[in-house]
Amino acid sequence: MGPLFMSPFRSAISAATTALLAGGLCIALPTTSFAAPPTAESFDILYYTTDADAAQARQMTANDLQGYVNQARCECGQNVSARVRIRSDAGAPDNVQVRTFVGDNCGQGQNGINPQNRPCALVLDEFANAYTRNINFSFNPLWLATGVSGADGGNQAIDQAVAARDCGSGQGNGGVWICVEDGSQTDCQDNEFIVQGSQNINATDDMGGSVPLTYDFAGPNITATGFSVVGGDGAIQVSWDNDSTGDTNGFRVLCAELDGSPVSGKGFSPPNITAENRGTTYYTKDNLCPDGPFSEVPVDDMPDAPIPVPETTGSGGGSSGGDDGTGTGGFGLGDAPDPLRDHSSCCAAHGEAGCDDEVCQSIVCETNGLASCCDSEWNQTCAESAVRDCVAACGEHAGSGSTTGGTTSGSMSDTDSTTNVSATDSTTSGSGTATDTDTDSGTATGTGTGGGDEFADSPIHSLDWAYVCSDHMPFNASQARITGLENGREYQILVVAYDRAGNPSEASAVLTAEPRETTDLWEQCEEQGNVCGKGGFCSCTTDQTPADERLLWLGLGVLGLVARRRRGAAK
Amino acid sequence: MSTLLAATAAAAALSSAAATEPAKAPPPPPAAASEGTNAAPSEAAIERQSTIKTSKEKRDRWNRPGSPQRFALEIKLGPYLPDVDLRYDGPGFGPYGTLFGETNSRGEANDDPKPAVMPIIGFEWQFAYFGGPLGLGTQVGFFRDKAKALLAMPREDENVRSEADDVTFGVVPLSLLLVYRFELLADRFKVPLVPYAKAGAGYGVWWTRNGNGDVPTNQAGNRGAGGVWGWQLNAGGMLRLDFIERSTAKRLDQTTGINHTYLFGEYQLNRLDNFGIGDSISVGDSTWFAGLAIEF
Predict the structure, then answer these.
(1) Which chain A residue's Cα is nearest to B216?
(2) Neighbours of A205 (CB within 10 A)
(3) Which of A128, A208, A229, B2 lies in disulfide reach of A513, CB 3.0 to 4.6 Å?
(4) Cα–Cα distance measured from residue A420 to residue A176, given in angstroms and rounded to the nearest whole number
C-alpha cells in the first residue's frame, strides 16, 4: 500500500479526488498527508526499572521482564518505566492520533463488549509526530493487571484513574498498548491497537519474539507435606516432602532464636530494589518498602462489575481447586482468601464496616480493641486480626483454589486433610492467611517440636531477610541443613517457597528444634584411647616407641648393607 | 580409440621383438591394463602389509600364539571391612564397631559391623615371561561406610543416635604390586586355569566426616583424615574363558588385540597400618575378591 500510495500517479489522483470532494461537496477535510500511518514495526518500546524515587534506573533484561513485577512491587508502588518512540528509519509518520495505554488485554477492555475486561489506563494521547522523539513515562505495576474502575466516570488518564482492583492476585503479561486512530470513531477500538502489550526491544526469546513483561501477584501454591525439623550437631536438619507442580521456583529456610530475635551471624541483606531478579530471592512489602509505598494508585473497593483474575499464562500457580471443594493449600496454611470474591468477609479487607461473621466481628472489634473495623472500614489490620483469631470463620478459606486457564475455581473447604505442613495448629502468618485447624503437634522428630499458637506472633512471620538462614534452594529441594547454631539452644524454624517473580508462598508453620552435640568416628577414636592415631598423610614416622625406632634403624641398616655388597659385586 | 590402436601396435611390435630375442625379460603388462582394474595383490604382499597376526604366527620367542601380550586389566568386587579397631583392646566394641556396628532398638552397637562391597580396578604391565607373565601392577579401590552419629549426651529414654547427623568413614586403598601369573599350562596344554600371586606395598587414603559433612578435628587438633602405608599379598586363580569358544577368542585377539579373558577369584591380605610402627590407624582387611580380567 505504501509504495503504491506514494507513486506520482496515485498521488495525483488522490489530490484531485480530495480537491473534488472538498470543493464539490463542501466538506471540510483534514489536511491530507502523503505519509503512511505508523505501524507496530514503527515503534521502539523499552522498559526500565525504577528506584525508590521513581527515577529510571536500568534497562530491563529478560530476567526482569519475567520476574520484576511482583506483588510486593505492586504494593510498594515501585513503578515500571517505559520509553516509546517511532523509529527514525520508519519514515515520517502520518500525523494521526496515537494513544498509548498500559495494561493487559486493552483491546477488549476498550471495546467494552466484554464487561469483565476493563479499559486500560491511558498514558499518552498525542499526534504521531510527538512520538518521533523519546517519550519516557512510568506507571504503577498495578496497571499491568487491572483496568480502570467505573468510578469517577471511568476516567482513563493514568494520573486520575481509579484502579478496578488491588494487587491481591493475578498473573499474566501486560505492557504498552498503542492505538492508532483511523478516525472512524472517537475512541480507540480493538482493531486499532497496533501494539498489543508484548512488544519491546529489551530482549528476545529463542524464536526471535519479544519477551513479554510478566506480572505475577500471587505466590506459589505448593504441596509440601511432612515438614519436620531435627537438631544435629550445631545444626538443624529441615525436611519436607516436596511435590512441586506449581510455579515454585525455590525455597528459603528462616530461623530465629526462641524469643523471635534473628540468630546472630545469620540473615541476609534485603535484595536491592533495583537489582535483577534471578529467581533466587523473595520480596515482601515490608522488606521492599519498609517506610511505606513509593507511589500509590487509588483502588475502587467496590467496582461496578466483578473483575476476573486475568488469564494465567505460562507457569500457572499450583493446583486447581475442584468442584468438590477439595484442593491443596499453600505451603502450610492455604491460600489467602480472595477479597474480590467476598466483599464482606472477615478475613479480607473491604470497604465496609464490620464483616459477615458476628462472632469474629466481636473478637476483632471488641476483644482486640479495633473498634474502627466495625465503625468505619474493615481494613487490612482488621482482616489480619480476624485471620489470626477467628479460626472458625477464616478457616473455611484455607486451601482456596488457584487460578488456572483463566477461570477462578471455587473457594475450598477446610483443609483438615490437605493442609500441607503438619506440626502445628492454628498458626498464622502474615496478612490475609487462613489457618489450619486440625493438626496438633507436629511430625518434628528428635528435638523438633510443634510451633502451635506459641509462635503465631513470632516476628519470623514477617519473612524479614534478617531471619533467612539458608541460601536459595531449587524448586525440587526437600531438605536443608542450617549450620552454625549453638548446641543446647532452641531455635524457631520456618520454610517459605517463592515463585520466579519473588512472591513468597504462605509460609510453613513454625517448628522448633535444638541442636545437640553428636560424636563422629574421629572423636570416638579419641574417646576410646586414641586408637586411630593422629591422622595426616605422612604418618610413617610418627610416635615411634624406642622398639619401633630400633626396628626402623635396623631395617635401614640392612638395606644399606645390601646396597654396598651389590656395588662391590658390580666392581 | 587412437590410444587403443597405438597400444595394439606397440604390443605387436613388442611381440615381434620378443620373437627375435627370446632370452630377454618378460614383457611389461599391456598398456590397456593400466586403464582397467588393478591386479590383485599377492599373498606375500598382504602378509607384509598386514598389522594383524594370523593365528598360526607365534607372537614371541616362547611360541605363544596370537598378538603380543603386554598388559592386563581387572575389575573385581568383594567384601571389605577396614580393621580400624585393630589396636583397640578395651571392653566392648572399638570406636569403629561402636559407630558402624549392628545396633539394637536404642541404637547401641550389639554386633560387629558388616563389610561393605568394595569395587577395585587393577592395571598391570607385563614386562617379562617365565612360564607366565611377570608384571608390575597397581590397583585402586573404594570403600565407604555410613551410620547415624551418636548423641554425645543421650537422655535416658531416647535413642542414642542422632536423626539429623550421618557420619561416614571412607578408604581408598592403593597398591603397587609385583604380579606373576603361571600361564604355561594354559598356553601350551590348553588347561584353562592360571594361578597367580601378587605382593607389594599399599597405601590407604582414609577420611572421616562428621554430621555436618566436614572432616572433623579432635581435641588434640588432629584432623580425621590421612594416609597410611602397609603391604599387600594376593593369591588366586583365573579361569581362562577362551575354551568356551576358541574361534571367537582368536577373532577377538585378531580384531582387538585382547589375548585372553578371565573370570577369577582371589584372597587378599592387606595390612595398612604403617607396618605396625607408631599409633597409626589400620584400614586394611583380609578378604576375597572376584572379578573379570583381560590380557592384551
Answers:
(1) A522
(2) 11
(3) A229
(4) 40
Q: Mark A337-352 as b/e (b = at least 16 C-beta within 10 Å).
A: bbbbebbebbbbbbee
The answer to whether A459 and A257 are in contact (CB under 8 A) is no
CB contact at 8 A, A262 and A465? no
SS3 assignment for B210-262: CCCCCCCECCCCCECEEEEEEEEEEEEEEEEHHHHCHHHHHHHHHHHCCCEEE
C-alpha cell recorded at residue A241: 516432602
In B, minimum Cα distance to A549 occurs at B277
Q: Which of A401, A400, A442, A435 is nearest to A421 (CA)?
A: A442
The verdict on a CB contact (< 8 Å) between A548 and B278 is yes
Q: What nine digits make up the cell of A560?
A: 644399606
Give residue-wise pLDDT tens across range A361-388: 777 777 777 777 787 777 767 777 776 6
Cell of A202: 529489551
CB B197 within 8 A of CB B180: yes
Residues 6+ apart with CB under 8 A from A432: A168, A336, A337, A339, A347, A348, A349, A380, A383, A384, A387
Q: Flag whether the ipTM exceeds 0.90.
A: no
Q: How far apart are CA B139 and CA B175, in angstroms?
A: 6
Please state, in angstroms and rounded to a whole number, the distance separating the CA atoms of residues A468 and A507: 13
* Cell 492505538, residue located: A179
CA dihedral for A188, A189, A195, A197, sign (positive or negative): positive
Are B208 and A520 an interchain contact pair (Cβ–Cβ within 8 Å)?
yes
Do A520 and B149 count as a contact with CB atoms less than 8 A apart? yes
Residue by residue, DSSP assigns A376-397 as T-B-HHHHHHHHHH-HHHHGGG
What does the alpha-carbon distance between residue A499 and residue A316 come to, in Å, rounded to a whole number? 10
* Residue that the C-alpha cell 512488544 belongs to: A199
Which residues have C-beta within 8 Å of that of residue B153, sequence separation ≥ 6? A516, A517
Q: Look at A344 and A120; give whichever has higher pLDDT.
A: A120
> How many CB pairs lie under 8 A apart between chains A and B?
168
Asked whether the whole model's pTM tops 0.80, one would answer no
Q: Which residue of B has its CA nearest to A233?
A: B211
B164 pLDDT band, cuts 50/70/90, is very high
From the list A481, A518, A531, which residue is nearest B87 (CB)? A531
What is the DSSP-derived secondary structure letter of residue B152? S
Residue A494, judged by CB atoms within 10 A of its CB (0-12, 13-18, 19+), counts as buried
SS3 for B77-131 is: EEEECCCHHHHCCCCCCCHHHHHHCEECCCCCEEECCCCEEEEEEEEEEEEEECC
Question: How far apart are the C-alpha atoms of B112 and B102, rounded to whole Å?
Answer: 6
Smallest Cβ–Cβ distance between B165 and the set A232, A445, A535 belongs to A232
* DSSP 3-state of A58: strand
Query: For A471-492, what is each residue's pLDDT tens digit?
Result: 999 988 999 999 999 999 999 9
Cα–Cα distance measured from residue A319 to residue A309, given in angstroms and rounded to the nearest whole number: 16
Assess B162–A contact: CB distance below 8 Å, yes or no.
yes
Q: Report d(CA B98, CA B151) in Å as an integer.
A: 12
User: Rounded CA gap, A16 and A325, in Å?
Assistant: 70
Measured distance CA(A343)–CA(A301) in Å, rounded: 9
Burial of A427 (0-12, 13-18, 19+ CB in 10 A): buried
Owner of C-alpha cell 585382547:
B258
Residue B217 CB-density burial (10 A; 0-12 exposed, 13-18 middle, 19+ buried): middle
What is the SS3 assignment for A77?
A: coil
Q: For residue A404, give the 3-state DSSP assignment.
A: strand
